[in-house]
Amino acid sequence: MLAMSVDSRFSHKIWQETELSQMVPGGFPYPMLNDPGGRIGAVYGVYDEESGVDVRGRFIIDPDGIIQAVEILTPSVGRNVTEFIRQVQAFQHVRATGEVTPSGWQPGRPTLTPSPALTGKVWTAWKTDMAL
Amino acid sequence: MAEGKDSCVKPARGPIVESAGQPESAGASVERGHAPVLAKVGRPAPDFEATAYYQGGYENIRLSDYRGQWVVLCFYPGDFTFV
Question: What are the boundaries of each domain within chain B?
Answer without folding.
Answer: 1-83
